[in-house]
Each structure stands twice: as C-alpha cells, then as structure tokens.
Write a structure and sequence with these properties.
The complex is a heterodimer of chains A (405) and B (224). Chain A is built from 16 helices and 14 strands. Chain A is an alpha+beta fold and 405 residues long. In chain A, α2 packs antiparallel against α15. Chain B is an alpha/beta fold. The chains are: A alpha+beta (405), B alpha/beta (224). The structure holds adenosine-5'-triphosphate (ATP) and magnesium ion. The site of adenosine-5'-triphosphate has 11 residues of chain B, from β2 and α1.
Chain lengths: 405, 224
C-alpha cells in the first residue's frame, strides 16, 4: 500500500511531477545523443585510421614493432594466413612490406615511404583504387608504381614519368631501381599523401632483395568492436615465439589517449548538466516533503513508523526517476538507431575542411546500450541522493508540532 | 484503567515558561465517555497529546493498565499508538490519496493484518459509522460529517480500547454532530471503548457521561 500511496502522491501536483519527469527525460536524451555522437565519431576515427593504413590489427614477426627494421621481416607462409583467416571475425588479411627510400628525379630528391602491398587486399580494406585520380590502380604483379598526389606535385612528375628509388635492402643489400609511375592517388591522410609510394608486393620484395618476405599481415574485421577479442583468439592460434599480434589500439596508442581524453571531456559536460537537473529535482522533492509535514505528523500519530515514511519518499523519487529514464530510453534508443543508419552529412566549406584534414565529412552516431545504461544508473543515483536530505528533514519532524502546525 | 498522577507540562521552560498542565491528577475508567472542556488555552489539547503518547510530560506519570505510558522509546511509542489508541482530529486528517476504505485498511496494513481481514473489517466499520456505500470515495468527495465518520472508522481499525478526539465536531453542522455523537456513544456502549473528547461544544457535553472542566492547566470541576 505504501507503493500505491507513493504513486498516487506523485499526481497530487501533476504539473510539478511532469516538470521533474521532463527535465530528467530531456537531460537523459541529450546525454544519450551526445555520447552517441562522441562514440560514433571515435568509431569513425578508428575506422578511418584502420582502413586507410593500419588495419584493425596486424601480425608481425615477434619484436618487429619495437625496431621496425627492414631486417625484422618474416616469411609469408600460407599456413600462417590460413590460421589468421580461420577466425570468424576476420574479413581479410594481406601482406605488406614497408620500407623507406630516397626518390629522385633529374633535379629533385625526397624521402619517401614505400608500401609494398597486395592491391586487392588493400582495396578491400580501404577502397584505395577509388582514390586514384590519374592513371591505373595496381595489380598483384604490377612492376610499376603509384604515388601520392602531394609527392607527385612536389617532384613535378605525372603518369608515365620515371622515378629513381634508392634505399637499403634486406640484410645490407643495396636497393636501387627505376620505376614508371602508372598512377597518382589522393591519399586521405595528408602526411601519407606527401610521401607514399605504393607498389605490388613482388615488386618491393625484388627491390629490397627479400623474396617472399613481408613485415606485416594487415587484418580487416567484420565487427570492429570485437577487435580485442579477435586479437586474443589469434594469440591462441599463432606461435607467439615467432609472431606478435597487435590491435589498432596498441598500434596507435596516441589515438587511444586522444579518444579517452575527449570522452572524459564529454562526460564532464554531462555531469554538469546532471548537477543542474539534480538541483531542480532536489528542490522539488524537498518541497514535496516540507508541504506535507503535517501529513507526516498525522501518519506517525496514527502509527506509521518513520522508516515506512522514508521508504514512501524514496519510492516517490524513484518513480519520478524511473518514468523519466524509461521514457527517455524508449524515445532515445530508436533515435540512436535511426541516426546510426542515417549519419549527418556535412556539406559546404566545413565539409571540405574536414575532408582536407583526412576526415570523412560525416557526423556518425552509434546506438549501443553501453551508452544508455550508465545514464540510467546515474539518474537513479541522483534521485536517491536527492532524497537523502528530505528524509533527514522528516526524521527531525516532531509529531505534535507537525500536527498542530 | 488510566491513572494520571501529578501531570505537569511546561512549555518554553528556558525562556518564558508556560504551564499548560499544572499538577493534574485523574483516573479514567474503562468504558468512560468523557468530555474535557474549558476556555481556549486551558490545556485540553496538551492533555490529550500527552495522554495519547504524542508528547511527553515535564513531570508526573500516566499509567495505563498499570504500565507507564511514557516509559518507551519513540519507535515503540509509535507502534503502541498504532495498536492501542485511536485518534480523531478536528480537521479529519484523512490521507487524501486513499479512498475511505483504504484509509481504514491502511492502519491494519501497518499492523500487518492479512488482506481479507482488512477488507472485511474496513467494510464493517464504514457500515457501522453509517457510510457503507462511500467506501470507494476519496475524502475530497465526502462532506465534513462523512469524512469525520471515516476518521472514526480509521481510529477503530486497530481495535483500540481508547479513542482520543480533539474538537471532533468543531467543523460539523448540528445534524452531522448529533449523528457522529450517536455513533460514538453506540461504540462506547456496545464495544466498551473509552472515549476522551476535548471540546467547546455544548452538544458534546450534553451527551458525555462525564465532563472534566480545565482552567489554566488545572482541573477545576468534574461532573457525572
Ligand atoms: N508548542 C507550544 N509551545 C508553547 N506553548 C504552547 C505550545 N502548545 C500550547 N502552548 C500553550 O499551552 C497552553 C495550553 O494550550 P492548549 O493548546 O493545550 O490549549 P487548549 O485548551 O487546547 O486550547 P484550545 O481550546 O484553543 O484548543 C496555552 O497557553 C498555549 O499557548
Ligand atoms: Mg486545543
């Protein structure tokens, strides 16, 4: 019956209760949308970084990541590929051999990064072929190269021109070769755009005199939220004396730091919003309590122990909180689902500026219960905390004085 | 039986003391129907509050069936009141969010009585106070007289031996007053419930078996 009384008490002042519920509703919706946008944009950042270069995870020879030396290569084994591809979250895996070299034309030289890769695998991961603005994308045994647009402009060369590359080969071999430019691509990462040269894997292996060797398997996944689990599974499958498996978060720890800092910033904004809401709720609950002092006096007079009165107050607060939270989830989650599938496209100058910085001009949302339940929990906690002082207030009520007030 | 010995209540003892009760000695037998009367401020409400365990005396004791009423923790006092004393207030003081029936049941629920018993007894009590057909109504839909009857039914819910009523008829018209007095007298006679009623109302004094006159915190007269 106390629950029934608490419930009915809410509707004694409908407008006030509805106002409290609405404030919770809007605060939680706002918080959910904000967090969803945040997590969506992190997902997008990770996606961009992973797709255009890193992959979601990489397998190297053990110790490669420490020194990144041209001498820490591994033999590309079908057996290893089979093991990697056997994981059900792995969408694809391909080999890369990266090295640095000096590029020279008749008049200019520049340090470049050579990415020897499997063109089909690379294309599946990042649609790299779509970024080719002139000439042809690579095939798996192309002898020619494609280069970043920035690099091409710097060197003043274009398709069908020849470029000399000079570098260090495997175990001290020298590497020097002439290549024809078969295509120019606009890489979304500005730094890469200014220094990257893509060539097919056999071609780079020939260049550094390391036949059938690579420095990494680049992995693509079906579900990027399960990368850590996939990495753990791969560590079980592969011989860890020979290999190391790293997820994007280990490959780019600075990105993880950036995301975490930004996420905490967003959470602090939400906390500030909640503190404002909490003050409103607190004053409502306190008012609901103070104006019923006489009623509480009568209730203790006729034999209601105070603990039951406290429980009634708490239930009133939790009802308000619960209605606010449940309605905001019922309304908010479908919005998130919709926004997840219909991201906001940013057009005009702002969109172009984002594209220039290597970001897709899109605001992405993510719909996940992980975003919602902390808000629900936090709100429930706020309701409880807001009831503490009113309960203390009731505890101090003197029955006789309350009755005769 | 209630024995009131040397009861003193002083308000504001540390500033300007007000002696609301000044050495009151009184015996109230089981089954009395007693009116406590006297001018405004003579101490009637104070007396009832202390007799009902809502307030504590500055001095003196109240023995109910031989045990000291005030020798209890405040939590025990609440359950003692719940189980042994019924209260009727001038302004009825029903729970506005509960129907007439629920107001009566509520006390029994606090006592932990089973649902079937609660429902049956609250029906019977509302029947007994003459508003059996108003059980499903909320207090705001009832007249003052009807609300006060619900209050009497509520006071009876826990089967107390003592009912304390402070100016129960002050807000009622004469028809409602006489109906309420009939009901209370009936309960008094049939169930042997003791009634102590603080009042200014001549009609209540006329129907009382005993009238105790207070003045300035003292008993100055007792009529049977
Ligand atoms: N809480 C209090 N603090 C100080 N003085 C009080 C308090 N309650 C009552 N008094 C004083 O005690 C005296 C007795 O008051 P009480 O309310 O018992 O009188 P009463 O007979 O019920 O009067 P009424 O007929 O007006 O209801 C009065 O002088 C009153 O002013
Ligand atoms: Mg009074």
């Amino acid at each position: 019956m106390i629950t029934k009384i608490a419930w009915r008490n809410l509707w004694r002042n409908k407008r006030r209760t509805v106002t409290s519920i609405s404030s919770i509703f809007f605060a939680v919706i706002l918080a959910i949308l904000m967090r969803s946008l945040q997590e969506g944009s992190y997902g997008q950042m990770i996606d961009t970084a992973a797709r255009f270069y890193m992959g979601y995870a990489q397998v190297h020879q053990k110790g490669f990541w420490e020194d990144k030396s041209i001498n820490s290569l591994m033999t590309d084994l079908q057996e290893t590929r089979t093991k990697i591809l056997s994981d059900k979250n792995i969408k694809g895996a391909f080999g890369r051999l990266e090295t640095y070299a000096m590029a020279a034309t008749d008049t200019l030289t520049k340090g470049v990064m050579i990415v020897g890769t499997e063109p089909e695998g690379e294309d599946q991961l990042s649609n790299l072929s779509q970024k080719v603005t002139k000439g042809q994308y690579l095939t798996s045994d192309s002898k020619d190269i494609i280069i970043g647009e920035g690099l091409a402009n710097y060197l003043g060369i274009t398709v069908n021109d020849t470029l000399a590359l000079l570098g260090q080969g495997y175990h001290g071999a020298s590497a020097a070769e002439l290549y024809r430019v078969q295509g120019i691509l606009k890489h979304p990462n500005p730094q890469m755009n200014n220094q990257v040269i893509y060539m097919s894997l056999p071609t780079v292996q020939y260049f550094v005199t390391a036949p059938n060797m690579i420095n990494a398997y680049i992995l693509d996944v079906h579900d990027n939220r399960k990368v850590d689990q996939t990495v753990a599974e791969l560590k079980e499958k592969l011989d860890l004396d020979a290999y190391e498996v790293m997820s994007w978060s280990e490959l780019a720890p600075e990105m993880v730091t950036l995301i975490n800092t930004d996420r905490e910033g967003g959470k602090i904004m939400i906390y500030i919003l909640y503190v404002v809401i909490a003050f409103g709720i607190f004053s409502t609950i306190l008012m609901m309590t103070i104006e019923r002092e006489r009623e509480f006096g009568i209730l203790t007079a006729v034999g209601m122990i105070r603990r039951k009165i406290y429980s009634m107050l708490l239930q009133e607060a939790l009802f308000i909180g619960l209605i606010g939270i449940v309605t905001s989830i019922l309304a908010g989650f479908p919005i998130l689902l919709y926004m997840e599938n219909h991201p906001i496209l940013i057009e005009g100058a702002k969109g172009e500026a984002m594209a220039k910085m290597g970001m897709e001009p899109i605001l992405r949302f993510t719909a996940s219960l992980d975003i919602i339940w902390p808000q629900a929990l936090l709100m429930a906690l706020i309701m409880i905390v807001c009831t503490i002082y009113p309960i203390i207030h009731v505890a101090r009520i003197k029955t006789v004085e309350a009755i005769h007030s | 039986m209630i024995e009131i010995k040397n009861l003193v209540k002083t308000y504001n003892a540390d500033t300007i003391p007000v002696k609301a009760l000044d050495h009151v000695d009184l015996k109230i037998e089981e089954g009395e129907f007693t009116a406590v009367v006297g001018p405004s401020g003579c101490g009637k409400t104070t007396f009832l509050n202390i007799l009902g365990g809502l307030d504590t005396p500055t001095n003196g004791t109240i023995l109910i069936d031989g045990t000291d009423l005030h020798n209890r923790s405040s939590a025990d006092m609440i359950t003692y009141r719940r189980d042994h004393i019924g209260f009727v207030f001038q302004d009825y003081s029903l729970m506005p969010v509960l129907t007439a029936e629920e107001n009566v049941e509520f006390i029994m629920e606090l006592q932990g009585r089973p649902k079937a018993e609660r429902a049956a007894r609250s029906k019977a009590l509302l029947e007994a106070v003459g508003i059996g057909d108003k059980g499903k109504q909320f207090p705001t839909k009832l007249s003052g007289g009807q609300q006060q009857r619900v209050a009497v039914a509520r006071a009876l819910a826990s089967k107390p031996k003592l009912i304390l009523a402070d100016e129960p008829t002050a807000n009622l018209d004469s028809k409602s007053t006489s109906d309420l007095l009939d009901i209370m007298r009936q309960l008094n006679e049939k169930e042997n419930i003791t009634f102590v009623i603080a009042t200014h109302d001549q009609r209540v004094m006329d129907r009382a078996k005993r009238v105790i006159q207070f003045d300035d915190g003292k008993i100055i007269d007792t009529k049977i």
